[in-house]
Amino acid sequence: MDTQDIPAELKSYFASSHIALALAGVTADNPLLLVNAPFHQLTGYDAADVVGRNCRLLQRDAENREARAKIHAFLEDDRIGAVRTTIVNFRKDGRPFVNLLYMSKLKALSGEVRFLFASQFDISRSQPELLSAYDTELSRTLSRLSPTLAESGIVIEGSLMTIANTVATVAQAKLTLADLDAPGFP
C-alpha cells in the first residue's frame, strides 16, 4: 500500500490538523504512510525520515513493556478498536519524551482494516490543562474525521471513551518522567 491509496479527504484532514497525527498501513510491519506537520514538530522526524518505516523507530532501546503489550493486543485482536497508552519515545535528536499514544483502526465498510490511525502528545512536562485541551482536540478530530472517512467508505473504530482518564494519565506520565530523569538514562 502506498500514499496513493489514502483517500484525498484524509490527506487533507491530516494537513490541516493542529495535533500530531500518523497513518500506518496494515501490511507486514505496519509501515507509516502519512505524518503531519505537528508530528514533525513533536518528534523532529519529517515524512522522508519515517514513511515506509514502522513507528517503533521512535522507541529506540526503551523497554516500554506494558505499552508494547497493549499495542500488540490492539493490533492482534479485532475486538479492540482503539488503544491509549503512555510510551517512552525519542525525538530525532535523541531527547526522550513520554508520548501519550492513541491508536484506532480505520475499517472499510466490509469490516476489513484499511489503516491504523494514531495521534501523539508529549506529556513529559505538560500541565494537566494542556492535556485536557489535547483530549478535547482529539475528540473533535475523531468526531470530524468520522464523516470525512465515511465519504470514502471507511469507519473509525473505537470510542471516545478511550480518551478518558486524564488525571490517571498525568500521574502515570509523572512516574515515567521520574524514570527518564534518573541518573544513567540518556
From TrEMBL:
The keyword Cell membrane does not apply. Residues 27-124 form the PAS domain. This is PAS domain S-box-containing protein. Keywords: Chromophore, Flavoprotein, FMN. InterPro entries: PAS (IPR000014), PAS-like_dom_sf (IPR035965). Pfam families: PAS_9 (PF13426). The keyword Flavoprotein applies.
